[in-house]
Amino acid sequence: MRILALDWGSVRVGAAIADSATKIAFPLKQPFESKKAVLEIKRIIQEQEIGLILLGLPTDLSGKEGKSAEKLKIFADNLFRSVKVPIKLVDERFSSVQAGKLLKDQGMRVRQQRAIKDNIAAQIMLQQYLDTKK
Question: For the whole model, what pTM was predicted?
Answer without folding.
Answer: 0.86
